[in-house]
Amino acid sequence: xxxxxxxxxxTLNTQxxxxxxxxxxxIQPTPATKSKTTTPTQTTTTKxxxxxxxxxxxxxxxxxxxxxxxxxxxxxxADAFYGNIQVQVVISRGKIADVVFLxxxxxxxxSIEINTQAMPMFxxxxxxxxxxxxxxxxGATDSSIAFQESLSxxxxxxxx
Amino acid sequence: xxxxxxxxxxxPQTTEETIDMVFDYFDSIDKKFSTYKGNSEISAINRGExxxxxxxxxxxxxxxxxxxxRQETFGYFDIAKPDQTFDPSGLVKGWxxxxxxxxxxxxxxxxxxxxxxxxxxxxxxxSKQKIWSxxxxxxxxxxxxxxxxYLEDKGIATSGTYIRGQHIYNPHKKxxxxxxIVSLSVVGQNVYEADRFATAAFAMxxxxxxxxxxxxxxxxxxxxxxxxxxxxxxFQAYTQDHA
Lengths: 160, 243
Known about the structure:
Chain A is mainly beta. Chain A has one helix at 145-151, and strands spanning 34-39, 42-47, 71-74, 78-80, 83-92, 95-103, 123-126, 136-138.
């Protein structure tokens, strides 16, 4: 189950030379803010309380997120990078209610140790719009044909 | 790198020069690593014009880190493209953002935000003295966020199929596009770790989130082509607004 196991993590021989210790330091009152945004061709500078710009809504044709039919679906045995993975998905009221790993690799043929017991049931839910009031946004820009294609391709088992 | 860069430094001693220093750094990286620029070092390497002993220190470091990452990701991270050229941008972005953040730290800045093309490193607090908040973009609707994460001295990177076309492929099946997941965001102790593992995990398709689950210090959020979001077991620690 989620978050109940501490020993779930896979350990790699990672020498993290880029990690520097970071200390918390009290924040100064009334801080000044500077930010600027640039693209390859253009540089703009804004001064004072300037949170990272939030993109203004553009009229993008919204493709409705497809609903799934209720039921329990067993996925194919997928050839993952270190063994086979098979999941079972339970759809309830059109949403993924549960995802269970039926198969997960437990061979230890490399230096990697995988604690299969700790493999999670990932929390899953249909994406939902959240507040746009944030300091920044992680993600890619530019929609594309590839994205449109990928949008229409998956979870076909459960689709109407 | 041909992408929008946002640098926000909150500390009172911040000057124009502070921001310029960071942008100059990104500029220098772009000049070396841009595969879109014919006169970049990486382009010269890809044309076979530069032998390894003549590479810059940065180039050698990036290639070393790329090889290390390739080994740590079962070959799913690979800067060697099908046409025998190299494209290290999947590592350079996070690496350079993290370097820029370290540059600011070294100069004594404590509260800042560095964003290059949607990969972000934050430090300290924002101008409202709150923990930095970062939205995860809806891959189906560019102006919308589908998650908000609250980050303190952390990095976040998102890999997706929806930027500049299908730019991530499975190195083990080079002709197959990745189409079942559209977005994978990784939060890590720094944006370098988040970026390189997000890139590799995305190439794994659906298995990628399990890969992230297995990595110490990383949490992930994946969106599939059907609009379902999946999260690793401790991702929720970042979605709670404890500011």
